[in-house]
Write a structure and sequence with these properties.
Chain lengths: 333, 333
């Protein structure tokens, strides 16, 4: 294993120290227990938006803390759920008196620990709501999951609900909005190479020189099919058809699209994939009204990509355009 | 070779088509000849700022086109200089009547072709100035270079001169500012793995499982030394000492720092490297007043990093803070 680190056990802590040093205008980092929080948290009267999960899905979640997105993020060890005490402390710090929304990717450990933390918070009088994101159409159940995995829709939910919270939307309404974003989103990913978890020291899996894994999970867990590598056009078609088989997105309607790199894929390839996606959707009469092209939910240095589509209504588009000021996503201010 | 592409010959064109589709609010792309230009170019009365070079150093240069940075960017094939006719056409399109600044990385082909284009433009009555960036302290001459290579300082020069041009700085003054940014900047890079140029189809070089290349060039050209991999702290110290041996950066002074990924290195590692850099500079009394941590000038999917330091005066810091609205760098608007 070759990595630019000191000691595998210290990677997440030392990296978060770097995040805090690099963005003192945007975030604070607590180290005991570990979480990232908006510089100006708690924001009085605003619903707090909190997410979290294993580290290594970058810039998620710490990179999405800031005005217009998350109030706090709870990073676990690499590819490992955060603990209830972390989530509890982050939730308390994010609570401005109007309650806190937990946005949780559908992984069994994450859900259990967020539930436990929510109970602890409720005993302290903090109102919480939880929404589980499960947008990945690749597999019905997986290594770490009962039901579909939560992937790229998490980024969309964090952005859109972050904007709505900033506008003053109350907790119950915000949770309903988050559920709608999840219900209207689907994703599918694929990989050309594995990544290497620092503490493991060796690649999570191996793929042949001419193989790809279609439907890969963001921890490298198996997908639908291991198959010979195809061209970008065929790969995009395969992923998009899988998504559209499960998401009603009629001609004339609008989508927010994410063409996401898994960490080791150049922008040259991601923009090329975006071209294929837009052409394919245009041929079906679907308009990509907004989009992200880049690394938004990675799997460390894995080569590969995922596509997320949100069937977007006017409310989602309007909230999407609101300002966001975080280390990983920034516009409008 | 496994890449998310259709045909190796079409990679740059198809990727630029994707860039144009993804950012219609920011840029236009010309395809005959190929260049990227600000949506609203030419801006009347403003000096145009134009850069260019081989593709694959992402998001440079096309990703830096927009308000507050470049008026136009001229991408060559992957790791290959753009041609004079491309540069000429981009310069004409970027000229708002106040002349055009060419920011050129020090590679022999780039310099020759920018010179030829400048002559053609001058014959048409367009005033041009050229500044060559040569900030890489790793080697004195290299495979594609007479003198030091131009790397990370290019990003700083494009941002700072883009801001100054936006404020209305005239051409001669802008060229002098660009030379000062270059003179006050130094960089050094290192790699853990090679990248693969699509048209070549195989890795540019090979490194052993426990080896790194210290002083690597952004095309994978050899550096100072091939050596056993060290820890992040030692690697940062090695690069920073090489920079500081050549850049006067006294205690009490300020720097703008770039901790740059070469494409295949996770943010987890880049933020960890930033922590090491800030601690090291703090111990010498140097303040990092502004910074970038992420992929700003890559070598496709190479694993590795570079550090750039600019000894920054008040003018540089003030221009740095101006708004920038490009696909690859965005704040303040």
């Amino acid at each position: 294993m070759k990595k630019l680190i000191n000691n595998p056990q210290d990677v997440v802590r030392e990296s978060l120290e770097g995040l805090a040093l690099a963005h003192p205008d945007l975030v604070r980092v607590s180290f005991n227990p570990v979480y990232v929080v908006r510089r100006d948290a708690p924001v009085r009267g605003k619903v707090g938006v909190v997410s979290g999960g294993g580290s290594g899905h970058e810039p998620m979640h710490g990179g999405y803390v800031g005005r217009g997105m998350l109030d706090a993020a709870v990073p676990g060890a690499v590819f490992t759920s955060p603990t209830p005490d972390q989530i509890e402390a982050a939730t308390r710090d994010a609570d401005g008196g109007a309650g806190v929304l937990h946005i949780i990717k559908n992984y069994t450990g994450d859900i259990l620990n967020f539930e436990m933390a929510a109970e602890l918070c409720q005993m302290q009088g903090i109102d919480t709501e939880a929404v589980v994101i499960n947008d990945d159409v690749a597999v019905e159940n997986s290594l770490y999951t009962a039901g579909r995995r939560g992937v790229g829709a998490t980024v969309l939910a964090e952005k859109i609900c972050g904007a709505a919270a900033e506008r003053g939307m109350p907790l119950k309404e915000l949770a309903a909005l988050c559920r709608r974003v999840n219900e209207n989103s689907r994703s599918m990913g694929m990989a050309l190479t594995s990544c290497t978890v620092p503490a493991a020291g060796k690649p999570t899996f191996t793929l042949g020189d001419d193989e790809m894994e279609m439907g890969i999970g963001i921890h490298g867990e198996p997908g639908r099919e291991r198959m010979p590598v195809e061209g970008a056009r065929e790969i995009v078609a395969r992923m998009t058809e899988a998504i559209l088989a499960d998401l009603r997105l009629p001609s004339g309607h609008s989508a927010i699209a994410v063409v996401n790199g898994l960490g080791g894929t150049p922008l040259l390839e991601l923009y090329l994939l975006y071209r294929e996606l837009q052409r394919l959707l245009e041929a079906r009469g679907v308009v990509i009204a907004r989009r992200l092209v880049g690394n938004y939910i990675t799997s460390l240095e894995m080569a590969g990509c995922s596509i997320t589509l949100l069937h977007a209504d006017e409310e989602a588009l309007d909230l999407w355009d609101d300002p966001v000021v975080t280390p990983g996503l920034r516009w409008g201010a």
